[in-house]
Every structure is written in C-alpha cells, then in structure tokens.
Amino acid sequence: EAGVAQSPRYKIIEKRQSVAFWCNPISGHATLYWYQQILGQGPKLLIQFQNNGVVDDSQLPKDRFSAERLKGVDSTLKIQPAKLEDSAVYLCASSFNLYSYEQYFGPGTRLTVT
Amino acid sequence: ILNVEQSPQSLHVQEGDSTNFTCSFPSSNFYALHWYRWETAKSPEALFVMTLNGDEKKKGRISATLNTKEGYSYLYIKGSQPEDSATYLCAFSGSARQLTFGSGTQLTVLP
To answer: If pLDDT is split at 50, 70 and 90, which confidence band does A1 have?
Structure first.
C-alpha cells in the first residue's frame, strides 16, 4: 500500500514570495490533515478536511495561508506572501475517516524563508 | 489550549543503554495517546496507540505504558541501538480525534 506522498521535499524562497505544497493521501482515506512543525516544537494542526469539506481550520492563518481539496483526494496548501516565521516542516497526514485512531504521515516539505 | 509536555527535550545514550521518556497530557476528555518515531527526512511512524488506563504496549525492544488518571505515559527503549536515534513524539487525542503533539524527545544513540 502506497503511503502519503508530498512534494516538493524541500523549498527555499524569499520572504513575500508565494509557495505551494502538494499532498496525495493513502487511497481511500477520507480525512486529510495539514500540520506545521516549527523547529523545537511539535507539529501543530493547520487544517482538517473530510472528503472535500473543511472540518477545522481554526489554526490556519487565513490572511496568508489557504488550502483546498477540491475533488476530495489530493490537497494543496499555499502560503502567499511568506514570512520568515513560516520556515517549518509542513506535514500532511491522512486517516480512513474522522473516527479512526491512526493518522498516517507523509515525509513533509521543509520550507526555508530567507 | 491543550498542553502536552515531553521530557527530556534531548537525550544522548551509549549503545546498549536502556532509556525512557515521559509524556504528560490532560487527564480530562481523554480518547487516546499516540507515540510516533520521526527519523530525519522520513515520515513520522506510528509506534503505539493506547486508549485504556493501564495499557501496556510492546514492539520489539520498545514498550509504553499509560496512566490516564494522572495524565502521563512512559516510553521505554531497552538496549538502545544507533538505529533508534530519532525524535519521539507523543500526541494526545480527545473526543474530536485531533492530535495535539508534544515537542518531542530527540534521542541520539552513540556507537
């Protein structure tokens, strides 16, 4: 069974530029999560999707971050414009449904904003 | 705001040493406690999910215990090997099933 795929794996941009990350969850998984992990901290949930609908985006900085999962499968997270404090690893995870114990993580995208 | 704390923040041990880490979490609205291992440049890998007070789980040389009444979990590694070097994350899950992570324990096993 293929795992959660993410791309790119690494990205370096200058502040005020835009960037987008892509995630393809495990086939058949209805729930998809985006996390932000800043160095020295644990991953923090940014947004949770169930199929193509948003379940929780309360911690997403909506002035600069956006995310979509239009067809209920893969998802894109965008930052526009980026700030220095957005430097982090962005992890995508999926689970079978909202009630599943397990979340399966991708390898993450390491973003550096200079 | 949920507070999940892990200690120590980092740990260096010699190959063959046994070690343990602590995760503390809210004792109310508890649903599950997760342990993940995260090696550099790889995906976080689920080690254990524990749901019942007194749960004990074991996978090879790694084991974990859970006390939901007092809000803590221990992860033990027996006879550490260099390949155990990683960041170990615990995560609390409440009724909404969302994960709140601790900041992790970074383990380095020296050969």
So the answer is: low
